Amino acid sequence: MKTICIICLLLLVGNRILAQEITEQSERHSWWYPSLNLLTAVPSTEFSEAIEKNTIWGFNFDTAFRPFKHATFFQPGTQFEFLFPVVKNETWKGARINTTGAIIKANLFTRFKFYEGAMVSPFIETAFGLNLGATSTTTKIVDEATFLEQFFLNAEDEIETVTLVEHYDTNYNTMLGVGCVIKQLISIQVKYNFGPSLEYIKKDNIIVSSRRISYKPVKAPYQTVEIALGFSFESSLNK
Question: Is the pLDDT confidence value at 59 over 50?
Fold first, then answer.
C-alpha cells in the first residue's frame, strides 16, 4: 500500500511539472504560426479520369493565429494552396507556346492544436473556401535590338509574354484535416478536400489548329486526399 501511494505521488508530481513546463512554453509562444509545405494530392476516381492524372504536386502556405493568450489550442487562420495538374509545350505558327494549368485554393480554417510547445503537437482542422481552376496558353515575343541600338544606346533584346487563350472556373471547397508539428519545426498534414464540380482543361483537350488555339473543358467534382510535409516557423518566432 505504501509503495502504491509513493508511485501515485510521483505520477502526480511528474504530471504537474510537465503541465507547468507546457504552460510556460505556451506563454512564450508567438501569436502567429506560419508554415510552408510541399504536398501531393491523390484525386478521386472521377476527378482522376477528368484530369488524366493519379497524383498532383503542389505546395501550400498556412498562417494560423492565436487570438486568445490562454487558449493556445484554438488557432484560426488562412491557407493558400497551389496544384499544377497541366503543363504542355507545343509549336504553333513557328512559335513556342506553353500551356499551364493550376488549381488554386484560398481557405479560412479553424485549427485545434494540443500540447502547444511539446515535442509533438497534434492538431485537427476544418476549412471552407474557394477553388479556382485556371489554364492559360502563352508565347514569348522577342523584340531584338538593332546593332545601332546596341552600340549607341546599350539596348538589349526585349522579351514580352503574350497570352493567347485562357480559361477560369470557380467553386467552393471544404476541407477536413489532421496533422502535427514536431519540435516546432517539421509540419506534417493529411487533408481531405471536397467540393462541387469544377471545369478543368486536360492535355488532350488543348486544341491547336492552324488558325487558332482552343480548349474543351471537362467537369468533375473536386475530391482529393493530400499529404503535405514542410517547415513550421514556430521555433524561429519564439526565440
Answer: yes
Q: What is the pLDDT of residues 83-141, one digit of tens each?
A: 988 777 877 777 788 888 899 999 999 999 998 778 899 999 999 999 999 988 888 77
- The Cα–Cα gap between 112 and 72 comes to 9
- State the cell numbers at 219: 467537369
Query: What are the C-alpha distances in Å from 69 to residues 21, 29, 65, 118, 174?
Result: 16, 9, 11, 17, 28
Query: Do 238 and 55 meet the contact criterion of CB atoms below 8 Å apart?
Result: no
Cell of 106: 484560398
**DSSP string over 39-62:** EEEEE-HHHHHHHT-S-EEEEEEE
Q: Cell 476516381 identifies what position?
A: 45
Q: Return the closest-CA partner of residue 191 out of 215, 207, 175.
A: 175
Grid coordinates representing 15 are 504530471
Q: Is 17 exposed, middle or buried (0-12, 13-18, 19+ CB in 10 A)?
A: exposed
Sign of the dihedral through C-alpha 209, 160, 203, 44: negative
From residue 109, give the alpha-carbon distance in Å to each of 42, 52, 168.
21, 30, 24
| Integer angstrom CA distances of residue 60 from 69, 117, 230 | 27, 23, 9
* Residue 7 CA from chain centroid, whole number: 48
CATH number listed for the domain at residues 31-135+161-237: 2.40.160.20
